[in-house]
Amino acid sequence: MKKTALHDEHIALGAKMVEFGGWEMPVQYKSILEEHKATRSSAGIFDVSHMGQVFVSGKDALNFLQYIVPQDVSTFNINCAHYCQLLNKNGGIEDDLIIYRLEDKYLIIVNASRRENDVERFLEHSKNFDAVIEDKSSELSMIALQGPNAHKIIEKAGIDDINQPKFFTVKKTKLFDCDIFLCRTGYTGEDGFEIISKNEDIVKIWRKLLEIGKDFSITPVGLGARDTLRLEAALCLWGADIDETTTPLEADLGWSVPKNKKEPYIAKDIIMAQKTGAVPLRKKLFAFELKDRIIARHGAGIFLNGKKCGYVTSGTISPTLGKNIGLCLISFEGDCKNLATSLNTKEKSIGTIIQIMVRNKMYNAEIVKKPFVEKKYVK
Amino acid sequence: MTIQPPEGILCSKSHEWVLEEGDTYKIGLTDYAVEQLGDIVFVELPECGSEYAKGEVFATIESVKAASEIYMPIGGKITEVNEELINAPELINENVWEKGWLVKAQSDSFAQDSLGLLEYEDYREEAV
Question: Average pLDDT for residues B88-99, to the nearest whole number?
Fold first, then answer.
C-alpha cells in the first residue's frame, strides 16, 4: 500500500488508517461526526495527497484537452479551474477531473484509484497531438483546508483575503516560504482551499496550518467525513455514483457539458444526442431522503411499484440535517420506463416516492433537490 | 472508553459481551468493537419474546461507515431491549458497559453456550 508524505503525521494524531484506492489513508482521527461538524462550523484540514496531478504542456495541449473532455477548454481563462470528465467511446465516465489552466500549461487533478488508467489514456490519445503529458503525482502532495474559517487561517498564514484566489481559481504563490498552488476548490460544499506542494514541504505546511488553525478550531478530517461532506453537497464519487457505464448527462452533470462546442471529442455524438434530447437517457442519478431511521447504502435496490428499477449509489446519515440521504441511479428502460413518469422531468421528479430495500425490508424515500445542504462557496 | 468493564463479563470472539444479572443475561458490544465501528448512528433491536440460538444475528448496528450484524453470544429469549438506544444510539459510544447495553435475555443453555466465551483480559489479548 502506498503512503502519503503525511502518513506519520496521521499516526501521531491517532488516526485510524484504512486502504483507499491503493493508499493507506486516515478514515477518521477521533469521530467522523465531529470532524464533519467541525468542517461545517469552523475548519477541517484533509490530506488528499492520494489524488493525482498530471500536467499537460506543448503546442497542442489545448487541442489535446479539447479532444479528451466534452467541456470547451478553449473558454477556460488563465488560473481558472473547471470540472470535467474523461469519457470512453460509449460516453461513460472513465474519471472525473478538475482541470486548471495555468499560465503556460494545464494541470489535471485525477482520482487516486484512476490515476494509472487516466495517464495511460492520456498518453494513448496524446500520440496524435504535440502535447507532453507529465504525471507528477509521486512528487506532489495536496492538502484541503475547508470550512468557513479556512480563509481566515490562510490570511493568518500570510496571504490576506485580497490576495487569496477567488472561487474555482488558482494562484501560484508561497506559503511558509514553500512554493505552492493555492486553489479555491474542494469537495465539501464549503468555502476553502486545496494546497499543492512538493512532497518535502507538505509536513511543514500541514503542521503550521494546524498550529495557526488552533485559534480557528481547526480539526484534522479523515476520509469518513470527507465522504459525508461531499454527499451532503451531492458531489459525485467516481466508482460509487459514476463510472464507465454512466454518461455525464445520466449522472445529472449536464450543467458541465456545453451544447455548442465545435471541436470533436470522444463520444461527442452520444453526448450531444443526450444533451439535445434526441436520444432519451437510459437512466438518471437522483437524490433521495429516507423517511425512516435507516441508512440505504451503495447497492441497495430501488423499487418503483414493486419492480426493481435501480440501486443506491451512495448513502449515509447527514450529520448536518440529521436525516438519511443518498444518491441513486434509476433506470428509464424496459418496464421501468413507464413506472415513474414523474421522474422524466427534474421539476416533477421532486417529491416522488420510491421504495428502497434494506436487509430485505422496504422503506419509503422521497426524491429531493440537490444538493442536500446548500453550498457555501464564496464567489 | 477508559471505563473498566464490570466484573464477571464474558466476551465472544465476534465482539459481544454477556453479564449474568439475577435470572437474566445482559448483552452488549465490547469496547473494542465500538472503537472499530466509530460513531454509532442507528440501532435495530429485536422484539421482546423472540428467541435466538447462539451465533444468530439478533441486532444491526449502523455506524456512519457501515452496517454491522450483531450475534447472540449465548442462546436465549429476549426479555427486554434497551429502548433508550433508539433515540440515543450514541450511548453505546459513550458508555458501552452500562448505558450502552443492547438486550436482556433468558437462557436455558448458558452453561453450554458460555464454554467458548472469554474473560475480558483474554478477549482483549485475542481481539486486539
Answer: 95
Sheet strands side by side (includes A52-57): A81-87, A93-101, A106-110, A52-57, A132-135
Count of the separate structural domains present in chain B: 1
Residues of A in contact with B47 (CB under 8 A): none
Average pLDDT over residues A100-108: 98
Using CB atoms, which residue from A228, A293, A359 is nearest to B64?
A228
Q: Is the pLDDT of residue B3 over 80?
A: no
* Whether residue A159 sits in one domain with residue A128: no
Mean pLDDT on A102-126 = 97
* Nine-digit cell string for A37: 461538524
Number of domains in chain A: 3
CATH of the domain at B49: 2.40.50.100
Alpha carbon A252 to its chain's center: 14
3-state secondary structure at position A8? helix
Task: Please tell me the distance from the alpha carbon of residue A114 to that of residue A137, in angstroms, as a whole number.
Answer: 12
Instruction: Identify the sign of the CA torsion A111, A163, A229, A377.
Output: negative
pLDDT category of residue A237 using cuts at 50, 70 and 90: very high
Put simply, the answer to whether B65 touches A27 (Cβ < 8 Å) is yes
Contact A312, A330 (CB under 8 A): no
If you average pLDDT over residues B51-67, what whole number do you get? Answer: 96
3-state secondary structure at position A166: coil
